[in-house]
Amino acid sequence: MTDSIKELTLLQPDDWHIHLRDGKALATTVPHAATSFDRVICMPNLVPPVKNADDARAYRERIMQYLQASDVRAARKSAFDPRMTLYMTDHTSVHDIEMAAKSGIVQAVKLYPAGATTNSADGVTDIDGLAKVFAAMEKYNLPLLLHGEVTHDHVDIFDREKRFLDEVLVQIVRNFPTLKIVLEHITTSDAADFVLAQGKQVAATITPQHLMLNRNHLLLGGIKPHFYCLPILKRATHQQALLAVATSGSSKFFLGTDSAPHATDKKEAACGCAGCYSSATALPLYATVFDSIGKLDNLEGFTSRFGAEFYGLPVTTNTVTLINTPMQVPTDYPYFDGSTLTPLMAGETLPWSIKG
Ligand SMILES: NC(=O)N[C@@H](CC(=O)O)C(=O)O
Ligand SMILES: [Zn+2]
Ligand SMILES: [Zn+2]
Question: What cofactor does this chain's UniProt record say it requires (predicted)?
Answer without folding.
Answer: Zn(2+)
